[in-house]
Write a structure and sequence with these properties.
four-stranded antiparallel β-sheet, globular, alpha+beta
Length: 581
Amino acid sequence: MALVAYWRTGTCEPDENLSNTSEGVSRLPAQEAAHEAEAPIAYQPLDARRLILAGILIAIFAGLAAIPAYRFGKDIKVRTTGRDAERLADEFLAKRPVNAASYRRVAGLHENLDPFALKYFLERKPVEECDRIYRQATRLLLWEVRYFRPLEKEEHLVFVDVAGGEVFAYRHLLDEDAPGASLSIVQARSLSEKFVERQGLALSGFELEDSQAKKRKAREDYTFVWQAKSGDQRNVEEARFRLQVDVAGDQVVGLARYFKLAEDWERRQRAITLPNQILIIASRALLVLAAGLGILVLVRQIRSGRIPWRATAKVAAALAAMLLFGELNQLSTFSRGYQTEVPWKAFWLFGGAQILLVPLVQGFFGWLLVGLAVSLYPEALRIFRGPARRVWRRDAAVAVLVSVAAGAAVSKLTAVVFNRFHAYAPVRIDLTPGLFDSYLPAAGFFLSALASCVILGSAGAVAIYLFRESWARRAWWLWPGSLLLLASLGPARAHSVPEFFVGWAGNAAMLVVALGIVAAFFRNNLLAYVGAAFFWSVAGPIESLLSQPAPFFRWNGVLLVLMSLIVLGWMLAPRGERPKS
C-alpha cells in the first residue's frame, strides 16, 4: 500500500501529517465516554406494516420448506452409539480371536462414500436413483472403531453400521515384516472367494479383474479385484462396482467395496483448469481485500483509542473458554489421527499443547474482532444489560423467526433445483451433523453456537460497516470487491458453465434473501444478529438429534432444546423487568 501511495504521489507523507491530531482524532475524556455509554439507544421499532409482512413471509417460507425434495442420504438414522459400536467391535475381535483389551481403542463416525463417484452418478442419474445404487453397494455411514498400539504397525479397524448395529467390514493392518504363511495364488484365491461368499456377496455376478502377489520378508500377500458383470444394477455406464480382497499370509485382512470410474473422466474432474485458477484467485483476492480493509479500520480505531480493550477482553476470555471446552468435548476422537510411529507421550504432549494454544490464539483474534466491532458500534456491549435487550427483544424475535424460516425455505428450494439439474449440481455430502461422536453432542453444539454468536456477529458487524462506509465514500474498491464477491459465489472447481451457474444460483439466492431480510427486519437491532447466529447454529442439530432412534441422541436433543430455551429466555425476558400493571 505504501509503494502504491508513493507511486501515485511521487513523495512521502510529512511526519506531522501522520499524527492523530492531524486527523482531528483524540481520546474521549473519561466523563464524556461514560456519558456516551449511557446515552439512550437510538432504535426505531418495527411498525405494524413490517410486522404483518414478517408474518406473511414466515407463512410463505414455511410453505416452501414443506415442498418435498429428495436428498441424498435421506432418512439415515444413527441407531447405534459410539459405545455400542465399541462393544460390538470387541465382541467381533474376540471371535477371531484378538485380545481387544491389549489395544488402545477409539471410535468415530465415517462417511463411507466417494465424492467423485457420486458426482459421476449425478451426471447420469436422478438423486434418488444415485442414492439407491450407492446403498445397494455399501453402507453410507459407519462407526469406525480403531484398535492400535503405540510404536506398532499392526492395527485392527472394525466398521459398524450405524443403522443396523452389525459389523459391516473389517481390516487388519499388519507390519510388512510380520511372519505368516506363503500360500500359492490358487490357495489364496480360494480363501478370498470363500470369505466373500460368507459376506453374502455372490461372486457369480462378478469376474476377476486383477490379481497381484507381493513377496514379504516372511510371508506372501495377495490382492484380488472382482468387477461386477455388465448388467449389474450397481454399474453406471463406465463406472463399475468392484470388490477388493487383501490376503496376508493365510488370512483375509480386508474387503473393500468401491466404484472404478472412467480414468479420462476422473482425470478431468481432478484437473485444475485456467478458469478454476481464476475463480480460486478471485475468492482469495476477496478475502485479502476484506482483511486489508478490516486491518486499516482496526489500526484507525486503535489510534483513536475507541476500542474498549478491558470490556471486550471479558468476551474474548469467554470465547476462548467456550472453544477450549469444545475441544475437550471432542477428546473422545482425538486419537483417530494418531500415527503409531510417534511415541504416545509425545503425541499427547504436542496434542495437549495444541488443544490449549489454539483456543487461546483464536480467543486473541476474537478479541481484536470483537473490539473492532464494539468500537464501530458502541451500543454492542449494552446487549448484556437487561434494559437494552428490552428495547430490541420483540423485533429480534421477529427477525430470528423470519431468518430461520427463510433459511429452511431457501435450503429446500435449493434441493428442488439441484434435483432438477442434478447433472450440474455440486456434490454436498452431509449425512449427519458433526459432533455426534463427541462425549456430549448437545454441549458441543451449544458451545459452538455461542462461539458463532461472538465470531459471526462481530464479523457481520464489521462487514456491514465496511460496506456502508465504502458506499458513502464511493470508494474505488467497492465495485471490484462486488465483482469478486459475485465470482466467488460459484463453485471454484466447476468444470462447465452450467455447473458453475447452478451452484452460483443457489448461493446468490441465499445472499439476496439474506440482504433483504437484514435490510427489512434486522437493521440496527444488535440482539437480532446475535440471536440469529445462535439459533441458526442449533436449529439443524436439534432436528437431527431429536429424530434419531437411539435414546442417547434424543436425550442430547432434549438437553440442547433446554439450553437453547435458556438463551431464548435471556433474550426475551431480561432480569430486572417489572411487569406492567
